[in-house]
Amino acid sequence: MSAMFKLVGKPAPRHDAWAKAKGDQLYSDDFTMPGMLYGKALRSKYPAAIIKSIDTSKAKALPGVHAVLTAKDVPMNVEISKFGQMKDVGGGFEGLYKVLADGKVRFKGEAIALVAAETEELAEEACRLIEVDYEVQPGVFDPEEALKPGAYIVSSDEGENESNLIMESHINKGDVEKAFAEADVIVENEYRVPPVDHAYLETEGGVAWVDDNGVITMRVGTQVLEHYRTIAKVMGLPQNKVRNMSVPMGGGFGGKEDITVETFLCLLANATKRPVKMVWSREESLEVHSKRHPEILRYKTAATKDGKITAQKVEIIMDGGGYKLLTGWVQMYSTVNAPGCYNIPNVKVDSYSALTNNTPSSANRGFGCCQANFASELQMDELAAKLGMSPLEIRLKNCLRNGDEICTGFIPQGHIALEEIAKKAWEGLEATGPKPDYVDGKKIGRGLAIGMMSYGRLTFMHDSSRVGLRIELDGSVTLRAGVPDLGGGQASVLCQIVAEELGIPMEKVHPYIMDTHLTPLCGTTTATRQLYMSGNAALVTVKVLKERIIKKAAEMLDAKPEEVQLINEKACLINNPLKSVPFVQVVGALSNDGVELFHEGQFNAPFTDVPNLHDMKGRIWPDFTYSAHAVEVAVDEETGKFEVRKVVLCYDVGKAINKNSCEGQLEGGCVYNQGYVTENMGWENGITKARSFAEYLIPTAVDAPEIETIMVESGGGLGPYGAKGVGEPADNSIAPAIVNAIYDAVGVRLKEMPVTPEKLLKAIQEKNK
Amino acid sequence: MHVNTRIMPVEFEYLEPKTKAEALEMLAKYDNVKVLAGGTDLIVKLKTGADIKVDYMMNVKEIEELNYIKLEDNLVKIGAVTPLSTIENNEIINKYLPILSEAIKAMAAIAVRNMGTIGGNLCNSSPAGDTIPPLTVYDAKLILAGKQGTKEVSVEEFITGPGKNILAQDEMLVEVVVPAPKENTGAAFIKKTRVKADISKINTAVLMERVEDKCVNCRIAMGSVAAKVVRILPAEEAVRGQKVDLNLCQKAAQIVSDEIKPIDDNRSTAEYRKEIARVIVEDAMKIAWQRSGGEKIND
Ligand SMILES: Cc1cc2nc3c(=O)[nH]c(=O)nc-3n(C[C@H](O)[C@H](O)[C@H](O)COP(=O)(O)OP(=O)(O)OC[C@H]3O[C@@H](n4cnc5c(N)ncnc54)[C@H](O)[C@@H]3O)c2cc1C
């Protein structure tokens, strides 16, 4: 079968590659309209305060200012956040979304008022003229403190509980207490992981206007086109009158999964009846958009003396920040992934999330999974060290294999390649040569971590995707898909699939994407779902058209449909390729016959019910992607400075449909969460100290290690051609592999990120005392 | 403090002299002139709301006669507006002042080094400025010019505090003059950062002049440990005239660590800086000594 692929599995240049390389691609900020105004949000000075009054009169009086809006000007200021799911999930999952603060301010930088003015400078000036009378509150900044009785209550009064608890969720499998009583060894540790910024090149932004027919129209990059529904509600408008002609993004990583500028822009455009642009500054972006959840994870593990894990007990406390946003969903990922990618008979997980007055936490590539993976993979090495086993041995002894059930009792349908990829990554690193003790005076260490992460959304959300195709009379193909493209090649791969099936070159398929009302809705570009969901939708759709074409071609070739194939822009006999008819002629014949040359098809993921959060059981996601990272680090024992020298990563990608994109994701993900180890938002009592990229330091090209990428293609995924998703799993197990490698080098394991030379040096000195 | 780096919230007249004389004329004529070279410090500061009075912005990067590197009478002369990337790749610099080139290579990314100038790094007078320790140990002199004439000062005299120097309103830096180091002289530069392309947490330059197995002249400069780049005279004193071995390097490094009074900031802690000052000075001395032709010092 695979030998017959013309395009699938090959490196394929994307349809938008040249425009991006040459700078022709227009991003959110690159677009202007005649008469355009500039929007700006006035943001709270304090993380916790009561707004006693707001006086906008001076700002309104400033010449050149066209609108100043506060909460009372928003038709529906408080809404329930939805993220494009088809099902009303309820059960504490859907959080509050508030457009502008009124009553209580819940985090520093929360928007209080909006301004539209002739220039960006004037808009700034107007914001300065708005007088807000705050009554500063003590606030609460630690999720454990927030959960104590008598803690400061973060929420305002819109029907939320008088407690900071967002959600609790539990897993109970077997009998952990019995297993602990019978254990040969027990390892107990606490791990802490920090907030993380997405650090995309392009900050949040866009333009909105009211079109000739009174439709509020936006040009805003987002990962979730379906937000137009919430925006319509906020505006008090019908859903067919709010449109986003979205644009390719300069990165998303989960940070453009919540609503960003959309509601602000629509409110201002509607109020002024002029086009309005708003682009957040880097300072604004770092301070106010949601971050990866900080978590405290407490592990207690029981094992036999030959290294078989018998019980894993985990307590997780998550910091949700000032608003719930996606916390409940992220919590599902942390909770179910807490035991790690291992077959463990007895598991107990208790997880709690809390509101605090920190910047809200929400989606960030990895979505609750990489927090749990970090802790569980350090815990594995702690156990290995105690038992005198090697990191590879302990993992091979315990990792999930085909037919094993995960902690909820669900048996994954897709292929589980953990054993193979763990070995391949580790052996790949060993093949680079024996580990030297020192290089340039620095101690060398090697580490391993493996992981699993779902692709596709939580199955209880009843996910679906649609793709539309039209075959043009010249044999080219128009593809329509509401697929937000954040740079991962989400649209291009759909063209590749369609071209493959129709036997035409990829350039002959042109994608029209990301329009809420003119392209079929594909669902969100989140949850590592686009290739799986929209890839399958493209396949479902093209197959309908392909059948029509083959049927007609068979008629023309005097053959049976099953004897005909589409290849090289021809329909030909499988057994006699010389007997053929050009693709375009078949299309012409179908047109003459009045046969429909278009189709829109839908793909549905498996559906389940919402789990009982007190005892989660069964299927939570469609399937998983498995990862392994083997890492070599060099540590300077005298300064605590460490450097990642080499990474060998191995993934079962199912099928690498576009080899270039797949490798790009795996390597990009690796460097992304290499940064997890060192990046530092510098939160202090609700204040973000990292105000720019001079303070929030991410690894750059010169920090990237040598990466060797090994792709296993088992064909055992649920996506098109057996593909799995890689976008988020790509960053899953690198961070713990680095910290484990540091341990191998110098014998200390820091259990709290960020890992800085300052902390590492202290730990090394303490150990040597 | 509220910051929006999409906006530079200042208004000024723009001046673009083509010659040094024209520039000095403008400095004398107008009030509140701010010299703009590469702008990689100045524009950032203006965008982040630093309190800088600027009525006239004078771009000096178009003054070709201040863009050069030459060797004259055993003196290396560098024009103030010479871009950092030109210096790092220049043969004269690599031959005579190799650690100036090394320090520049360790700065920022190529784009910033293409824009930034040596004059800008000096006049910005940051305690973390990476060209300052090398120029300090090489005993560079700075030529300051005004309409009334020029003066020559050492780097240490020039910089007085964080972002502060002795330039008068109507003066500018026009040239950096460095005596070509004598035979049997070696130098080293070491910088520690958070990620690779980053401002120094700490940096050091060490220069050692050797006669047989003794060090007859030693200069040690440290950055990011005080209000300005500082020389550690007691450590230099302890080395001068001594036979150089591991013991001596460690002793001098310990003096440096004891002498400095760094602070905690967002890049590092005082404690850590004191700790690694010892490590990097010892390493830098070993490298400098070997480069001077001295025997390799092993641990
Ligand atoms: C991303 C980034 C990374 C950086 N990394 C580093 C680093 O690693 N190490 C480091 O040391 N620096 C670093 N810098 C700072 C900066 O790039 C350097 O200090 C550079 O040398 C400044 O030169 P410039 O020509 O851009 O100066 P400008 O910004 O043009 O000027 C700086 C100051 O000097 C004054 N000035 C400039 N030239 C003259 C002159 N001839 N006479 C009188 N006054 C003058 C200006 O008025 C201004 O006050 C970094 C900057 C950025 C943006």
Task: Explain the overall architecture.
The complex is a heterodimer of chains A (769) and B (299). By secondary structure, chain A is α+β, with helices and mostly antiparallel strands. Chain A folds into three domains: 2-25 and 464-604, Aldehyde oxidase/xanthine dehydrogenase, molybdopterin binding domain (Aldehyde Oxidoreductase, domain 4, 2-Layer Sandwich), CATH 3.30.365; 31-137 and 204-279, Aldehyde Oxidoreductase, domain 3 (Alpha-Beta Complex), CATH 3.90.1170.50; 295-458 and 610-768, Aldehyde oxidase/xanthine dehydrogenase, molybdopterin binding domain (Aldehyde Oxidoreductase, domain 4), CATH 3.30.365.10. In chain A, β12, α6 and β13 form a beta-alpha-beta unit. The longest helix of chain A has 28 residues, at 530-557. Chain A is globular and about 85 Å long. Chain B is α+β, with helices and mostly antiparallel strands and 299 residues long. Chain B is 34% helix and 26% strand. Chain B has twelve helices and 15 strands. A five-stranded antiparallel sheet of chain B has the order 4-5-10-6-7. In chain B, strands 11, 12, 13, 14 and 15 form a five-stranded antiparallel sheet that branches. In chain B, strands 1-3-2 form a three-stranded parallel sheet, covered by helices on one side. In chain B, α10 (233-239) packs antiparallel against α11 and α11 runs antiparallel to α12 (270-291). Chain B starts with 12 loop residues before the first strand and ends in an 8-residue tail after the last helix. Classes of the chains: A alpha+beta (769), B alpha+beta (299). The A-B interface holds A 120-121, 124, 128, 279, 281-284, 638-641, 678, 682, 689-692, 694-695, 697-700, 702-703, 756-758, 761 and B 2-7, 9, 48, 109, 192, 194-199, 266, 268-269, 271-272, 275-276, 279-280. Residues 34-42, 44, 60, 80, 84, 107-108, 112, 115-117, 119-121, 123-124, 128-130, 167, 172-173, 199 of chain B line the site of flavin-adenine dinucleotide.
